[in-house]
Amino acid sequence: MAIIKVQKGTKDILPQEMTVWHLMEEKAKEIFEKYGAKEIRTPIFEATELFARGVGDTTDIVNKEMYTFEKSDRSLTLRPENTAGVVRSFIENGMHRLSAPVKLWYKGPMFRYERPQAGRQRQFHQVGVEVFGIKQPTADAEVILMAVNYLKSLGLNDLTVELNSLGCPKCREEFKTRLKDVIRPYLAQLCEDCQSRFEKNPLRLLDCKSTECQEIYSKPEIQAVIQGDFICEECAEHFNELKSYLDILGIKYERNKLLVRGLDYYNRTVFEIKSNNLGSQNAVCGGGRYDSLVKNLGGEDTPAIGFAMGMERLASLLGEKQEKKMTAYVISNNTVEAMKLTEELRSKNVTCEFDLANKKFVKQLEKASKVAKYAVILGEDELSQDKVTVKNMETGIQETIKRNELKL
Ligand code: HAM
After folding, report:
1. Which of 218, 266, 320, 327 has its CA 20 to 30 A from that of 355?
2. Mean of the pLDDT values across residues 48-74?
3. Is 127 exposed, middle or buried (0-12, 13-18, 19+ CB in 10 A)?
């Protein structure tokens, strides 16, 4: 019979990969909670409208990549990201009444119908943080610090933080107009995507991957607009203050004026953290400020900033970590005694197994050397004297002790 295979763009996370996944999850809890963030778990599907209004209907995510389905006349969508869902929950649960800042963190699967390639899947996982209620750049600095320190806690130090400011809606409109003015003469030569973005979302022209488009955008008159400082005085002040905090904190960053991000809700600060070891899908983290989203989704006017990291991309940087061995493997020809001792050890929080298949003593010993740090041997002598022999499987040293003195 034909076997059923895993769906394109999805993958099993197998037991041998779990050491790395548990590490990413444990460190997220440890580091984010150190900064006062609390975990939130929101549903995996939401009303389609949440993403259309939240992420923005000019984005690729909403236009091309959503897993949308109908149930009882409702249009539902598997979440392509989690900022919109967390904002929905923030509003619905009246979290604006809590004392600011409200810091939330999350982990879980996201779904985007993208063309799968290395580092890009249709189901992937994110860990992320959202901080609500602070408009000052101290929040921007703290959020970037949380991201960098989380990555450091995983041993990932040689990553690049790219930083940009998209300004506020007012200064951005002026920039968009100037950008369109210089690009308009080349409109017919742009790729299909850029032609449709030109009116709808001209900032996204800047991160087009097509070399033909990039050649056009590198023309001096276009570069002059891109590289010129378009942001207004207030936005520039916010950005400068953020940069000074990062300098004081010793966080290195690079200004990338082409960094515009693929979601519509951002204003002012945007950032990505990239690795040189990941090929074309090199961003492990993306984030930024989204001061209008809570209001646009029907809540009180609340500034906010956050980020999310792709866990599969992190896992591929972390590589294979050795599976942890269990603490003990109980060896005996007396199944009932082995079963009892194993349960006794488990009740003392020792990870432990015994041979369920009644194999020969030597086979049990071979198994113990593969899976456990200690073999706990219950031979005939030990049983008759109420003793056990504990063998350290790494050093080979063993000693026989009273059973009630056994501690692992
Ligand atoms: P994003 O840049 O779309 O931002 O995604 C964040 C990270 O998720 C990316 O840097 C990447 O590591 C990972 N990622 C995205 N798409 C895929 C994919 N198809 N396969 C594997 N990994 C992927 C957001 O999602 C925003 N919600 C971040 C945010 C939070 N902004 C403010 N708060």
Report:
1. 320
2. 94
3. buried
Of all residues in the chain, the percent with pLDDT exceeding 70 is 100
Sole residue written with tokens 């007012």: 170
Residue (of 53, 115, 42, 106) closest to 79 by Cα position:
42
d(CA 333, CA 311): 45
| Angle separating helix axes 137-153 and 233-249, nearest 10 degrees | 40
Determine the atom of ligand 1 nearest the C-alpha atom of 306.
33
Of 81, 144, 291, best ligand 1 pocket probe by most atoms within 8 Å of the beta carbon: 81
- To 5 degrees, how large is the angle CA 177–CA 179–CA 181? 70
Spatial distance between the Cα atoms of 308 and 61, rounded to a whole number of angstroms? 15
Residue 365 token pair: 């010993």
159-192 residue pLDDT tens: 999 999 999 999 999 999 999 999 999 999 999 9
Q: Give the chain's length.
A: 408
Distance, CA of 176 to CA of 193 (rounded, Å): 17
CA distance 200 to 58: 6
Q: Which domains does the chain have, with CATH numbers?
A: 15-168+231-318 (3.30.930.10), 326-405 (3.40.50.800)
Per-residue confidence band for 158, with pLDDT thresholds at 50, 70 and 90: confident
Is the pTM higher than 0.85? yes
The C-alpha atoms of residue 142 and residue 151 are separated, in whole angstroms, by: 14
Closest to 251 (Cα-Cα) out of 179, 164, 159, 385? 159
